[in-house]
Specification:
- With 258 residues, this protein is mainly alpha-helical.
- It is built from 13 helices and no strands.
Amino acid sequence: SRLVPAIVLGMAMTACSTMPGREGNVDAVLAASGLEAQLTRLQQPLPVGQSKGPTMLIPDEWLAVVNTTVAEALKPEAMRQDLRSALLKDLSSRELAAVQHFYESDAGKAVVALESGTGAALGTSRLSDTTLDDIARTTGAGKSVSLLAERALTEAVDIAFKHQCFGLEKVPFAGLLGGVMKKSQLGMLRDSVNTSLRSRYAGLSETDAEAYLAFARTAAGSKFFNARTSVLTGYAGRAGDSLRSKLTEAVSAVCHPQ
């Protein structure tokens, strides 16, 4: 007779400790970890106003059109829900609490402020290149943006040449130039992503950077960043796959206005 109440009590305790509480935890983690800043950055992958050399043939207004097309191809709410599901699946309640605890600490708030652009980034970093590289590698920072930017740029340059934008039909060896433009722009793009990453975390103190890396190397931190990187890069790849038709329409309209 004692067994039945014990089973009922166990079931009640299990119910209380699972979904409602964990959903609360994951929502708190998403809010505290600055997910909105990650999604916003993903919607504007191409740097505008930094074209040099052969890439000056590509106007900033055209890059802005590409950014707009990318933003329209992404679904922030779906990304948010997928990340929510991934965190609920991969992290325990204790691990979610550990992630929330870090992002609500002074070091975590400093990271989110710099990532969201509300913190003051310094002109010169307080941190070594090695530390900045460790942050990028350990947290996956910039990976999804870089993937989407490269996909979008490759598609866009190909379409621009096909539609003879920028007066390219008048340029000798335009096909060869296209390859040079693409290679040059992609190289600049990678440099820009790296520079952006470095400048974003330049305002971190050594103490905060050490705390961030220490958190990222814990089981909870590693699972959190793996889940975030997987979901965001997955969406970046799928958005890239769907860009060609949308970019063709947008680019054609810019190159040959009615």
